[in-house]
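Could you show me some protein's one-letter sequence and the numbers that encode its backbone in two labelled lines?

___
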Amino acid sequence: MTSERWTSATVYPDMWADPDDDAREALAKPVGEKETYRNYLAHYRITLEMKCEGLDAEQLARRSVPPSTMSLLGLVRHLAHVEQSWFRRVLQGQTDTPALFGKSTETPDADFDGAVADPAVVEEAWATWRREVRDADAWLAALPEDELGRTALHHGNEIPVRDALVHMIEEYARHVGHADLLRECIDGRVGQ
């Protein structure tokens, strides 16, 4: 049995969108190390938004497979927390900033557990994620390229800024892969 797959592409039916309509295409030619990191992050952030576009609160909060609590909404909340944790708390040293969504050692999955099918929760998640992305982008834009080797403290270890940026890219890459599968389960839309 073959099933129809969701697509908005008209030229390439196996893609989400035609290349001329894909906002990620503009990121193809970075210049320099810092711009390469920034472009990869922007690419994955746009991809996350694409994976979630057009879905309602119930669809965004739909869990993958039991016993997992993973959902697209949970990923948005989780990535907002990750943005805050790495860019504010680690790279900018704002260690007193309270973790988002009540996440703590006692409630390590609060970002996923609190991802419920409520439009207000969806709105808050996107607003929080966008704020953290905007703040992270502003900080990174202001960082001189020659400071990518500067170190920051993470759990008692010093790590270079560039390592934290590569970790952020890896974090998004992994979770956008999850988002591909979650979205396909919801309406058959597949990744590109």
